[in-house]
Design brief:
Layout (H helix, E strand, L loop, with lengths): L13 H24 L25 H8 L3 H10 L2 E5 L3 E2 L5 E2 L2 E7 L2 E9 H23 L3 E8 L20 E9 L4 E3 H4 L4 H14 L5 E3 L11 E4 L8
Antiparallel strand pairs: 1-4, 2-3, 4-5, 6-7, 7-8, 7-10, 9-10
Bound molecules: zinc ion.
The site of zinc ion has 5 residues, from strand 7.
Length: about 240
């Protein structure tokens, strides 16, 4: 685990809230109208607001809304995680102290075809990670490097500590974050943030692409662009700061 500095406060604005809800509401309205006029019309699951999140399905304007429902309920979260092809085990909530605990502890050993050193995190982080792997990481690997990611490297999730230079507890103190340090590809290529963020053009483009896509699945993403403390990893968490850098 590496130190993550205190992000500046950025309150959720009404504009961002409305902007985030606008598209799903429009889709819902059109879907409802279509069902009203043609009740027998089959609505594909990814476009059907009544079906649960399928992490393997195409991303539609409803996907993030379904994800927000899944991460708010442990049973829905684990069901979606199973559907994502993630191999994991669970145990009872761990309350180590007032400020250090793991809710919905989920020990991941593989995300679909992507191997990793086993790590325990919260189900919500595991599910967001699975969504990012399928819809961000693998897509970027095919686009920039013509291969697929077979292993992801990380610095862990849970760590009972404060943010460096702050009295506030880190998101890692509640396993509400994951630090990602690199990727191995099917063709043997190894990509590490510490070497390749400013490395060969294709690897650097891949890393920026996966950083940007992480921002749509996590609440906060910090990369080497943020500061020197993040020169060798992406910090990704569910915090409400909404920072992507
Ligand atoms: Zn971190």
């Amino acid at each position: 685990m590496r130190p993550d500095p205190q992000p500046p406060k950025r309150p959720l604005s009404l504009g961002r809230l409305i902007g985030g809800l606008f598209l799903p509401l429009v889709v819902l309205a059109f879907g409802a109208a279509a069902l009203l006029y043609h009740p027998d019309t089959p609505l594909p699951d990814p476009w059907n607001p009544t079906t649960p999140l399928d992490p393997m399905a195409e991303v539609t304007p409803l996907t993030h809304w379904k994800l927000s429902k899944a991460v708010s309920d442990p049973m829905l979260c684990w069901a979606a995680l199973s559907a994502s092809g993630t191999i994991y085990s669970t145990r009872e909530d761990q309350n180590n102290s007032d400020s250090c605990h793991i809710r919905t502890p989920t020990r991941i050993t593989r995300i679909d075809a992507t191997r990793l050193n086993p790590v325990e995190t919260r189900c919500e982080i595991a599910l967001r990670w699975a969504m990012w792997d399928r819809h961000g990481v693998q897509t970027a690997a095919r686009k920039h490097l013509g291969s697929s990611v077979t292993r992801v490297h990380h610095f862990g999730s849970y760590s009972c500590r404060k943010i460096a230079g702050s009295n506030r507890m880190s998101q890692h103190a509640t396993a509400n974050a994951i630090d990602i340090s690199g990727f191995d590809l099917a063709d043997g290529t190894k990509i590490r943030l510490r070497n390749d963020w400013d490395g060969p053009a294709d690897k650097a483009a891949f890393l920026r692409d996966v950083r940007n896509s992480a921002c749509s699945w996590f609440g906060l993403v910090l990369s080497p662009d943020y500061n020197a403390a993040h020169h060798d990893h992406f910090h990704m968490d569910q915090g409400r700061w909404g920072r992507c850098r």
